[in-house]
Design goal:
This is Carboxymuconolactone decarboxylase-like domain-containing protein. By secondary structure, the chain is mainly α. It has helices at about 1-15, 20-30, 30-45, 55-65, 70-80, 85-95, 105-115, 120-155, 185-190; strands at about 165-170, 170-175. Helix 1 (about 1-15) packs antiparallel against helix 2, helix 2 (about 20-30) packs across helix 3 and helix 7 packs across helix 8 (about 120-155).
């Protein structure tokens, strides 16, 4: 009965986002305990502690692009648009076009890429993030960076990884910018 209820929830997600949920269905069918742990992980991934949607999705999108440039990224982009984030901001986050982003969102984009690259430039950006959104905001961004990397890793581990594809943002189709920290990023930190 519980498997049926979880599968119904997955089918709703599949329909809502046009997203392949087979890897989650496989976990559910093979090991209910493992699926319940995955659901527990989902609560970490959803944590926001009052952080505004734009910086939260900036971290989520940049983190998922780091490990995926296909269906997982498309899902997070669709969720960002559903959260009413302006499509121009979403496109700039995907493209890592810092000049088209509000300064604080550019900081989150840079911070996320610096964290994932283990770059010391993250330190100055961390201070700016804490000044804007406090330690709770930093934790929310940290959870987004950490959690959103799990989905593509798990999908690839289970054999559901997909090749890179273009990401749709309303009528625009883009290839995610996956580069690490650039000289422009370092210059923009200051």
């Amino acid at each position: 009965m519980i498997r049926y209820a979880f599968n119904k929830m997955l089918l709703t997600m599949k329909k809502r986002y046009n997203y392949d949920v087979r890897y989650q269905q496989d976990i559910l069918q093979a090991d209910l305990g493992a699926y319940l742990k995955f659901m527990g992980f989902q609560t970490m991934a959803a944590h926001s502690a009052g952080l505004p949607a734009e910086p939260l999705y900036a971290a989520r999108i940049r983190a998922i692009i780091w490990d995926d440039c296909g269906p997982c990224t498309q899902l997070v982009v669709d969720m960002a648009l559903e959260a009413k984030i302006d499509a121009r901001i979403v496109r700039a986050i995907i493209d890592k076009d810092l000049h088209k982003l509000p300064e604080e969102i550019a900081w989150v984009v840079q911070f996320t890429d610096c964290v994932l690259a283990h770059s010391p430039e993250a330190d100055d950006l961390r201070e700016k993030i804490v000044a804007l959104w406090g330690t709770q905001g930093l934790i929310s961004i940290g959870y987004a960076i950490s959690a959103y990397r799990v989905y593509p890793a798990l999908k690839y581990a289970l054999g559901y990884g997909k090749a890179c594809s273009r990401i749709q943002v309303n009528e625009s189709s883009l290839v995610p910018t996956r580069n690490a920290v650039s000289a422009e990023d370092t210059a923009r930190v200051g």
